# Entry
Amino acid sequence: IDVTAANLSQVSYVFGPSGSTDTLFVRANDGTLWGSWTQFTAKAFADTPPTVIAANVTATHGQTSVAASSLFTVSDPDPDTMTQYALWDTGGSGHWVVNGVAQAANTEIDITAAQLSQVSYVFGPVGSTPDTLYIRANDGTLWGGWTAFTASPGSDHAPVVTAPNVTAIHGVTSLSPRACSRSPMPTTIRSPSTRSGTPEATVTGWSMVSPRPPTPRSTFRRRTC
# Structure
């Protein structure tokens, strides 16, 4: 490729793919004679693929989904800005969702970096089998390897009721339950009373109420002479 000295500023060399090497030759002319060829190499930068770091995740109580961006981080020694991500679900009880659309299992799901905020993972039903998920990243030049981790649905425990023993006292015919699973709270028991006063006793956990009979009233008749 012969170029004039005036055109030299318009000449450039484009490196090959990552890690590749070219052998180049250049010679010059002084207006009378050509000099010898000089050989040298041009080696492209060796890009290092990114590495996805992800830990196993378990849903908290009541949690049904999680943002994909919170499930992993990316390490790139170059460092490059990630341009793409790939997702995979082996077909457990949950699934990936992209922009509100559920994704099929056992299929590579490629998304751009801009789409990552629209991706979430939906956990399977409580007590179902955990999913094995895979993620990898692309730095604009190379894809990194797949990183596997598990996503487990949250657990649920049946409620437990606790209740204290109770014995009715004399004259008590009924009782109403309080929150037996909570700490016992003082409850007043009322016994049959008179107008002059109301004796009381206290137990815990239940309220016992006995019927209160009406107080008889005296009747007077006025007699006229």
